[in-house]
Amino acid sequence: MQMHVFSSKAEMAQAAATKAAELLKDAIVRKGHATFVAATGASQLEFLDALTSDPEIDWPRTAMFHLDEYVSLPETHPASFRHYLKERLINRVHPGTVHLIQGDAPDPQAECQRLNRLIASHEVDVAFVGIGENGHLAFNDPPADFEVKDPYIIVELDEACQRQQLGEGWFASLDEVPHRAISMSVKQIMKSQVIVCTVPDHRKAPAVRDCFAGEVTPLHPASILRQHQHADIFLDADAASLLKQQGLSIA
After folding, report:
1. How far apart are CA 50 and CA 14, in angstroms?
2. CB atoms closer than 10 angstroms to residue 7
3. CA-to-CA distance for 14 and 22, rounded, in angstroms?
4. Are 136 and 165 contacting, i.e. CB atoms less than 8 angstroms apart?
5. Please, what's the b/e burial string for 18-31 (b: 16 or more CB within 10 A of its CB; e: otherwise)?
6. pLDDT at 250
7. CA distance linking residue 226 with residue 234, whole number of Å
8. Which residue ranges of the chain lie beneath pLDDT 70?
């Protein structure tokens, strides 16, 4: 794992996007195609804007998998991650193949099985992720399951996670936030050849401290990234503000 801290959110997002673009281009040159995982949420806004502005990525030669989605939420809902990805990524650059999570599928478990079959035939070159205010990785809230092998699983969202979604403005009230989601599992995320993790904002500072200056534990799910050989953590100064108190060396 490597950690990079930037003075502003804009600088952080551009640096993360530059790294992500290099990884996609390299995979396309080496293999003729690239497979990536896309995250959503407020932490990814500037990153995706910078990434989709790169004119040199051969997007038709990429395949995209979706990191997580609420169960039972229709794509037409403003908080739908499918809606988010279509607006901020898919409709801008048109990846060659897109595998979205149908969160409102009649049988969520069958939807997980469908996705599991699809991703089984792909090597993920790079996963774009963030971490939550509660330290979650995708929707794997604490205590996260580090051992489940299925690529996609159904998870229960804890109250801290639900309150973050409310606080970011995706829902009008806490009662509207779904209690379940389909999420890529921790083991599947860790199978990615490279992980680009983008974490801005002061509200994420406690989670950043707990995940990257404490012990690796399911109680701080994103702490597992410290065990990945090629995980790049991009932080702005606000998100990194509590790390210096821990004496952590950062680039």
Report:
1. 6
2. 10
3. 12
4. no
5. ebbbebbbebbeee
6. 53
7. 13
8. 245-251
Would you state the pLDDT for residue 22?
98
Report the pLDDT value the prediction gives residue 247, as an integer from 0 to 100: 47
Reading phi first (left if > 0) and then psi (alpha if -120 to 50, else beta), residue 41 is in: left
pTM exceeds cut of 0.90: yes
Q: In what order do the strands lie in the sheet with 62-66?
A: 2-6, 231-236, 194-199, 126-129, 34-38, 62-66, 97-99
Backbone angles phi, psi at 202, to 5 degrees: -65, -30
CA distance 80 to 71: 10
Q: In the prediction, which pLDDT does 144 show?
A: 97
Q: pLDDT for 1-18, tens place per residue?
A: 999 999 999 999 999 999
CA nearest 179: which of 214, 155, 196? 155
183: helix, strand or coil: strand
Q: In residues, how long is the chain?
A: 251
Q: Which residues pair with 180 in a beta bridge?
A: 156
Residue 235 CA from chain centroid, whole number:
14
**Domain extents in the chain:** 2-242
Fold classification of 2-242 is Rossmann fold (3.40.50)
Phi and psi dihedrals of 17, rounded to 5? -65, -40
- 150, 116 contact by CB (below 8 A): yes
Letter string b/e over residues 58-77, b meaning 16 or more CB atoms within 10 A of that residue's CB: ebebbbbbbbbbbbebeeeb
